[in-house]
Amino acid sequence: MNHCKAKGGENMLGKIFNFFFNPETEVAGEIKNANILRGIKNYNIMPLIFAILIGIVVSAFAVTIGPAILSNPLLNSNPAVPMLLSIGTLAIVILPILSLILVTVITLIGGLLIWASTKILGGKATFTQIYYVSSVLAIAYVIIAGIPFIIGTIMQNMPLLALIFPSMTTVLQIVSIASLIFLIPAYAIMTYFGYASWLILKRLTGLSNKKLIISTIITIILAIILIIIIGALIVLMASAATAGR
Fold first, then answer.
1. Which of 13, 50, 17, 45 minimizes the C-alpha distance to 147?
2. Total tally of structural domains belonging to the chain
3. What is the pLDDT of residues 152-177, one digit of tens each?
4. Which of 59-73, 177-191, 218-232 has the lowest mean pLDDT?
5. Mean of the per-residue pLDDT values for the chain?
6. For position 116, what pLDDT does the model report?
């Protein structure tokens, strides 16, 4: 029984990686599985795992290093530091919840914008197809690029620890430079992800390269308009809250 489960897991991973490196040929096989709830699950699996791991690290850091930070007069003089440390201790709970909410909302809105822009130009794909098939590609992308990106980002920001351990400044700077070993491949995979996404959209929608370029521009414009509207609403809400005090 366990052997069957392990084999199923291997087959699933093989399928995901095959889809990532051969997106054009694998799209047809995934269209029949299109489902929004499956898409939401696909998009959230890896970010949730990373959020939990990062939450554990941040919480452990806040609990173990927090007292040393608070004992430093230069850092303790800032009232935001104790507040951030308090939030840090709860990161193991806060980060996974935020990850679920943000990933779900952002991917649904992004998928909707892409679908709308392709539909305007005569694209034949449904929102569910675009959202789900893109989510399968995203799983492979996060597995392949996510781990080196997180490791590289942590290494890149290690010099911040020099505030607490000034004697290790040189070592921490070397570690930061060494982060490029992980970050360069991660960024290269990000570039490929954009190319693979293009191939998938072209196959799903049936649009020409010219129409896809126009569709991409429309998507970007719609996203900018949406960001401006959300930003304006946040500013208005913050102003109202400030005026009410």
1. 50
2. 1
3. 888 888 887 777 777 888 888 888 88
4. 59-73
5. 80
6. 92
CA atoms within 13 A on the CB side of 155: 17
| Domain range for 205 | 2-243
Residue in the structure block whose two tokens are 């941040």: 58
pLDDT tens-digit profile of 211-227? 999 999 999 999 999 89
Give the CA diameter of the chain. Answer: 63
Q: Contacts for 27-35 with beta carbons within 8 Å, 24 or more apart?
A: 27/133, 27/200, 27/203, 27/204, 28/203, 30/132, 30/133, 30/136, 31/129, 31/133, 31/204, 33/132, 34/126, 34/128, 34/129, 34/131, 34/132, 34/133, 35/128, 35/132
What are the tokens at 72?
Answer: 């430093």
* Angle, helix 36-70 to helix 127-141, in steps of 10 degrees: 40
Q: How far apart are CA 233 and CA 222, in angstroms?
A: 17
Burial environment of residue 204 by CB neighbours within 10 A (0 to 12, 13 to 18, 19 or more): buried
